[in-house]
Amino acid sequence: MRRAPESEPGSLNIYIVEDDDALRDDFCRAVQTCPRLRLFGATGSAQEALRVLRQRPAIDVLLVDLGLPDGDGTDVIRVMRTELAQAQALVISVFADDRRVLPAFAAGARGYLHQGCE
Predict the structure, then answer these.
(1) Domain Response regulatory spans what residues (predicted)?
(2) Closest CA to 70 of 96, 41, 93, 50
(3) Model pTM score
(4) CATH number, residue 51
(5) pLDDT 10s digits, 42-71
(6) HSE toward the beta carbon, residue 56, CA cutoff 13 A
(7) Has residue 2 been placed in a domain?
(8) The pLDDT value given to residue 5
(9) Do the domain assignments include residue 1?
């Protein structure tokens, strides 16, 4: 997991859960370009994300993929809602079918960014 230096008061701490290394790096770079955002960390593992969330860190926004190699991003969102009531989750996924997306919203996701093809 990567961590950024301490940020300015009023900034948002972002935690990214994405198994595609290149895409995760792109999201990390995007967060780091915005002065009001702080990259709290990033992982490609559902299990690592669950471990971090259970420590109740100061995360404001969770960007989470649904299709992770070691678990379901919906489970990560569910734990986030239990452990970090103040945090908000946004799904970042190639999945667009109701069978995958609706459970993520039921678990507490507040938005969805589709990683569609051009």
Answers:
(1) 13-118
(2) 50
(3) 0.88
(4) 3.40.50.2300
(5) 999 999 999 999 999 999 999 999 999 999
(6) 5
(7) no
(8) 44
(9) no
